[in-house]
Amino acid sequence: MAELDRPQAEVAVPDDWTYASAPESRDIVHIADRYGHFVGGEWLDAAETYETIAPRDEEPLAAVGQGSEADVGRAVAAARDAYADGWSSLPGSERAKYLFRIARLLQERSREFAVLESLNGGKPIKESRDVDLPLAAAHFFYYAGWADKLEYAFPNRRPRPVGVAGQIIPWNFPLLMLAWKVAPALACGNTVVLKPAETTPLTALLFCDVLRQAELPAGVVNIVTGDGRTGAALVVNEEVDKVAFTGSTEVGKEIQRRLAGTGKKLTLELGGKAANIVFDDAALDQAVEGIVNGIYFNQGHVCCAGSRLFVQESIYEPLVAKLERRLATLRVGDPLDKNTDVGAINSAAQLEKIEELVASGVEEGAQIYQPPCILPEKGYWFAPTVFTNVAQSYRIAQEEIFGPVLSVLTFRTPEEAVEKANNTPYGLSAGVWTEKGSRILWMAQRLRAGVVWANTFNRFDPSSPFGGYKESGFGREGGRHGLEPYLDFEESETFGG
Ligand code: NAI
Ligand code: MG
Description:
Blueprint: H1 2-5, E1 37-39, E2 42-44, E3 49-54, E4 59-65, H2 69-87, H3 92-108, H4 110-121, H5 125-146, H6 150-153, E5 159-161, E6 164-168, H7 174-187, E7 191-195, H8 202-213, E8 221-223, H9 228-236, E9 242-246, H10 249-259, E10 265-269, E11 275-278, H11 284-296, E12 308-312, H12 316-327, H13 348-364, E13 367-369, E14 385-388, H14 395-398, E15 405-411, H15 414-421, E16 429-433, H16 437-446, E17 451-454, E18 473-474, E19 487-489
Parallel strand pairs: 6-7, 6-9, 7-8, 9-10, 11-12, 11-16, 12-15, 14-15, 16-17
Antiparallel strand pairs: 1-2, 3-4, 5-19, 10-18, 13-14
Helix pairs in contact: 2-9, 3-5, 4-5, 5-7, 11-12
């Protein structure tokens, strides 16, 4: 008893509950001063370079090659040689060994990759560490498993590889998009030329070291860095048999025009303006977490982000109040801090686009809410934003913002929710929050979206296909479906034959 009676005066009671900074060390990453292109298993010196920076403070990180048409040509030739020299005829079980090795190496080096991804791209370390890296490794593991089972995946269709795949990826999930593209291509026996986005080339360049460790035969994967001009050179190269693109709808349409009539295979994963729909019987606190994850994850630089929130009218006020309260707890700041929820905007150009669209929302009459938060002086930053009083015709309800900006709209009936949700040129993803299973199925049948999440959002698994309707593109990545774009089929004449 005496112990309990003793006054606790010596234990200081904190009066400030803000988080102390908890920066992840960047010592684990070595960044070279200058990078060339990775072609035929070797580094090709780049005649022209540009500087890649850290968006959190605009620190220059490295000089990176601006790939020319000739660089692209060399990479494609190396891929063609590697294809003919054995990769395409290697037994699937042998290809699988390389993919398993790559997957394990990514796991082993995951901290290094996560730090570099956050440094070069601006996303919070907790996301690159807990989402991007585990999922990238999982994609390689998953497709490694398919490599020797293609005949079972497509019975009676005699699958064979397509040839050289030209792959162009964006800056929002640099290593993960690389994994989505490279893993199925190699599993199916193709070789690859990949072009990372201009603002985030560093993890793709580090990945070349993983390929060396895995002893992948030279030329099976080639990486050429540079901007849209490099991408365009890859698209039109005549030795490329298949093009896979993830990025803006504008560039996707341009690529489709370029390839029309060439016979090249094409998949496009483009923009989105997803509806996240909350019914009045949903668990509101969970829904709020899902809404926050849906739009503020990765600063909203997510093609399937839940950027249009549809709330059933009867719960509009309590839900918006909860959401605004939750927003005030998000920590915006240094991507390398382990406590950061919302990191830096990827580039000056993207920040400008977000600012312009947000200004248009205010101009058109929507009500803006931003929690009080102090943004760093240097670098590219934007506070988490919610717009209420939004009409469907406003630009913020129609156009992809690709930033931490949510537009809230309302509905009364399920029919109205479906009609409003589908009122967009896009169709990549959607979310439904309700207690009723039958309503989830009813909604999922009617929503024109490639993925419909129920009582969750932004969930990914390599075994689950992902892709769009309408202007969000075509073709699927992930799952067994994700193999198809990388295969040609020699359909047998008779069933079972
Ligand atoms: P973008 O479509 O220009 O860039 C994506 C990739 O395509 C990059 O690697 C880029 O170098 C390459 N590229 C650009 N022009 C090309 C061309 N003519 N031929 C071949 N490749 C080309 O996207 P950007 O300009 O970075 O972002 C603009 C908007 O696009 C964003 O604000 C966002 O709304 C949307 N976007 C959507 C993405 C998605 O995941 N669906 C990813 C990135 C951007
Ligand atoms: Mg662009």
